[in-house]
Specification:
The structure is a single chain. With 74 residues, this protein is low in regular secondary structure. The protein is built from two helices and three strands; from the N terminus they run ββαβα. The longest helix has 6 residues, at 33-38. A three-stranded antiparallel beta sheet has the order 2-1-3. It has helices at residues 33-38, 58-61, and strands at 22-24, 30-32, 51-52.
Length: 74
């Protein structure tokens, strides 16, 4: 199951699990749409392709919560 990380690793923008606009690579490095565009859809950590992260419906978050660990690197 995806961690659904709560923020963009590059700029720190909030990325709620039930909202679109997040991009992830195969290692789940997570970026907002603006940062992913500036990265040419390539993960700066591993070189993998950044893809749209799926959303998790709010009704499923109670039993399958998203991660609360922030990964922004200032």
């Amino acid at each position: 199951m995806l961690e659904m990380r709560p923020d963009c690793e590059r700029c720190g923008a909030d990325l709620p699990p039930s909202s679109p606009g997040a991009f992830i690579c195969s290692f789940e490095c997570t970026f907002c749409a603006a940062c992913a565009e500036n990265l040419d859809d390539q993960c700066p950590n591993c070189g993998g392709e950044l893809m749209d992260r799926p959303t998790r419906p709010a009704k499923l978050l109670a039993d399958n919560p998203a991660s609360t660990e922030r990964r922004h690197k200032a």
